[in-house]
Amino acid sequence: MNAPASRSRFREAEKRRDSDHVSFLRHKGFRWLWIALLLSGASALGYALIDQQPRPNGGTWYGYTLGTIGLGLILWLTMLGVRKRRINPGAWSLKAWTSAHVYLGLSLVVVGTLHTGFQIGWNVHTLAYVLMLLVIATGIYGVVVYAVLPARMSDNRREMTRAQMLDALTALDRQLESAAQPLARDEADLVLAALKQSPFAGGLLARLTGRYPGCATARARKGMAGDSEAEQRVRALLEKRLAQLGQLREALRIRAALEVWLFLHVPLTMALIAALTAHVISVFYYW
Ligand code: HEM
What we know:
The chain is mainly alpha-helical. The chain has two domains: 28-157 and 265-285, no CATH class; 162-259. Helices cover 78% and strands 0% of the residues. It is elongated, with a radius of gyration of 28 Å. Protoporphyrin IX containing FE binds at residues 74, 77-78, 80-81, 84, 98, 101-102, 105-106, 108, 132, 135-136, 139-140, 142-143, 262, 265-266, 269, 272.
């Protein structure tokens, strides 16, 4: 193999190793954290050193500089959505993009706040600022769930895939169906209602909180009070079913928590871009 080809294979392998094992927060020895700290530090230092009364705000040359940096950053951060969907890897891995996204996104708190010159009011400029903070806050939530939840997900799964969890439930349901045959009508109806109910029933709130107040299996378990042999057996099976459902619901809850924040992060980004457009137009209109 010639040297450039082997170098490029090495680079590919390195990229893969990086994205396999290093969290995007630690990417390349926290490179983007340092760059973001540098940017934030330089912006704050500039703000502190500029001898100007009143202090620089969006309308001064320093304010324009910070505003331009902030706007450029926000437009670049928005491009992550495009990068995520691109199939060819490009010069930067997705991990590098996400690392830069997170740290440079955080540095906007400093750059954006100094750009406002701490002048807050009921206007489109403050609206853009507040939307930016909301996008950042949802991003922080996203990073926290990405850091915490995958470990919890694998703990909960105990080596089972979601399909295996559903298979285990189906096997249990078959046993329950035959164990419920000797039961009295009202108890058999309770079991039947539990078997009929979809394990996914409950809606978004139930999925996010992991609470299923309408759970027919829990209701059947409560209603199975007698001590006959059939009732004891059904009770034990219902308890197993509840445990199995609990595991499945926990898996659904974790997945929902991993995804739900993007349903805020992305629409808020769109609102931010709209508010920024109005902000920039109004600034130049009244210039
Ligand atoms: C104003 C600043 C920001 C803007 C405009 C912005 C915008 C975006 C956009 C458009 C995406 C792509 C989402 C998609 O298409 O699925 C994204 C993803 C993401 N953002 Fe932000 N973001 C900002 C700040 C932040 C901050 C400060 C953090 C974390 C502290 C963050 C964390 C993330 C993460 C982790 C993803 C990747 C999600 C994934 O890979 O599924 N963002 N952001």
